[in-house]
Specification:
The chain is of the alpha+beta class and 440 residues long. The chain has a single domain, classed as Beta-lactamase (3-Layer(aba) Sandwich), CATH 3.40.710.10. Helices cover 30% and strands 19% of the residues. It contains 13 helices and 18 strands. It has a six-stranded mixed beta sheet with strand order 2-4-3-16-15-14, sandwiched between helices. Strands 5-7-8 form a three-stranded antiparallel beta sheet, with helices on both faces. Strand 7 and strand 8 form a beta hairpin. Helix 5 runs antiparallel to helix 6, helix 5 packs across helix 7 and helix 6 crosses helix 7. The longest helix is centred in the last third of the chain and has 22 residues. The two termini are 41 Å apart.
């Protein structure tokens, strides 16, 4: 009789034996082998001048005149990537920048969930343990002050938490707890060191989301164990502590902020809060959709199946999801699809899919997206961030998302979409590899 740990016995109280999730995909994935260590393929042109995007926005003063005039106050940054295909369907990229400056801080909010989700899948692959995969049962324990445990997930078909389910919830509805559990599996040091090694040297992902913890508590991450369907322990990781120091930044936002119900009359300190540039986020998304197009050092260690999995849930609507079940009054089709859809509710057309990760907090709205229109044979990438807080006061719940930020995101996405639809392309792209059979 196999002797089981107390953690697993507690786990058994909540869940039945795990069943591997089944996913259905159409066609082969034609955008490059994620495991390849070869050189990047395709032409890559970056145009960092403001002229193109500024000229385009000036043609729509009803949408963008205030944004253009107040670009510094709004902290607007935009990256638009045109994608063209050769006779073999290999992509080439032309990037256009507006007001992009990695030294201009914006709070990335939930966009940091994208690299953390990818790193969690990567770490599973790096462990190379028999039987361990992204669907293995994942038990999170408490091992330090402020930590909480997880033994079950009522949103799964069998009640069991896993890396796969956390990744899925991150891209479907930007679940904060899912991010925190992957942050704890990875550990603060692994996250930052791996991203820096990949060339994203300005990144600092230092804390969990939606829970208030000290700098020391965020440096400590929970013990985690993985089990196979029969309860056999596959991998056990103790409490991790990141002892490495990082450059102390001088990032601050606003003119005042509320803390514990009191107004503090100076800018809010963001020097130890999460940081990542729009350019790095844009590049990370490209490494998912087009892994062969980025240098080998910037490719995550993911299988083709991992990339299909991520791409499906980046583009799937909450209503198309069986587990968890999402109430469409809370999680509508366009939930999290800020660029092009803004705050629009209701059912969306199935012919346009947006593969993205968005974020909003402290008055900042950010969205990093790849667009694919299967009917009109259109594809492009578009990323943008904007600060929507006219009074400069943080933590007062008086941000200008509805009045400024969401309309800007919607109008920018639609203007870029219409421009890209009309521009001349040497060839139509074959987008069939990104047509998925969704869960329902």
């Amino acid at each position: 009789m196999i002797r089981r740990s107390l953690a697993f016995l507690m786990f058994q109280l909540f869940a039945s034996f795990i069943c591997a999730p089944a996913f259905s995909f159409a066609g082969s994935f034609l955008f490059g082998n994620a495991d390849s260590s070869g050189p990047a393929t395709g032409r890559d042109t970056t145009i960092k001048t403001k002229d193109f995007l500024e000229t385009l926005m000036m043609k729509y003063p009803q949408y963008f005149s205030k944004i253009l005039q107040g670009r510094d106050d709004f902290r607007v940054q935009i990256i638009y990537t045109q994608i063209d295909r050769d006779a073999s369907n290999n992509p080439s990229f032309t990037d256009f920048y507006f007001n992009v400056d990695s030294s201009h801080y914006f709070y990335p909010a939930s966009t940091v969930k994208m690299p953390v989700a990818l790193l969690a899948l990567q770490k599973i692959n790096e462990l190379r343990l028999p039987g361990l995969n992204k669907g293995s049962s994942m038990v999170t324990e408490k091992g330090y002050n402020g930590q909480t445990a997880v033994y079950n997930d009522p949103g799964t078909a069998d009640g069991r938490p896993s890396v796969a389910q956390y990744v899925k919830k991150i891209f479907l509805v930007s679940d904060n707890d899912a991010f925190n559990r992957l942050y704890e599996f990875l550990g603060q040091e692994y996250i930052n060191e791996r991203l820096h090694k990949m060339g994203f040297t300005d990144v600092q992902i230092n804390h969990r989301l939606e829970v208030s913890m000290t700098e020391d508590e965020n440096r400590h991450t929970n013990p985690v164990s993985f089990y196979d369907p029969n309860g056999k322990l596959l991998y056990q990781q103790p409490v991790q502590f990141n002892q490495k120091g990082y450059i102390r930044r001088n990032d601050s936002v606003g003119k005042s902020y509320f803390k514990d119900g009191h107004l503090v009359d100076h800018a809010m300190d963001f020097s130890i809060k999460n940081r990542i540039s729009l350019e790095d986020l844009h590049r990370i998304l490209r490494s998912v959709i087009f892994p062969a197009s980025v240098p080998a050092a910037q490719r995550f260690n993911l299988s083709d199946e991992d990339i299909r999995f991520v791409s499906q849930y980046m583009s799937q609507y909450p209503a198309e999801t069986r587990f968890p079940y999402y109430d469409t009054s809370q999680f509508w089709d366009a939930y999290g699809k800020l660029l092009y859809w803004g705050s629009e509710k209701g059912s969306l057309p199935k012919s346009i899919r947006i593969f993205n990760k968005d974020g909003d907090a402290y008055g900042f709205l950010t969205d990093v997206s790849y667009f694919a229109d299967f009917d009109r044979h259109i594809e492009f990438m578009l990323s943008a961030t904007i600060y929507c807080n006219a009074d400069g006061v943080l933590n007062d719940d008086q941000y200008d998302y509805d009045r400024v930020g969401l309309p800007f995101m919607k109008q920018l996405g639609q203007v870029i979409y219409e421009y890209d639809a009309r521009r001349s392309r040497p060839r139509q792209p074959n987008l069939l590899p990104l047509r998925f059979t969704y869960e329902k």
